[in-house]
Amino acid sequence: MLSIRRDPFPFEPARDLLGIVRALYADARTRGVDHERLRGIAAVGAEIRRAITLAEAHAPGTLGFSSAWARVERATAQVGDLVDVLTPAAPMIRAAVARARRKGSGASR
Length: 109
What we know:
Elements: H1 11-30, H2 35-57, H3 63-82, H4 89-104
C-alpha cells in the first residue's frame, strides 16, 4: 500500500545517484559486462529518472508524488545491489569524466 508523502522530494541526492548509476553503466559497458547485467543497471537508472520526473510533475500529498518517493526508495536499495566492496571507484570515475568530456565537446550520447 502506498502511503501519501508530503515531505520534500530529495531531488539533488536522486540526481547524484542517477549520475553514479550512469557511471556504473558506462564502466560496465567498457569492461564488456554481459547484456543482462547492463540491462539491470539501465533499469535502475530508468527508475530513478522516472521518480524524478514524477516528483517534478506532481505536488506533495498527491498519488503521483508519493509514487515518486516509492520509486526512488526502491531504486536506492537496488543501487546497493549493483556495487560491493570489491567494486573499484576509479573506473567509474574515469567513465564519468569521459562522458562529461564528450558532452562538453558537443558530441551526443
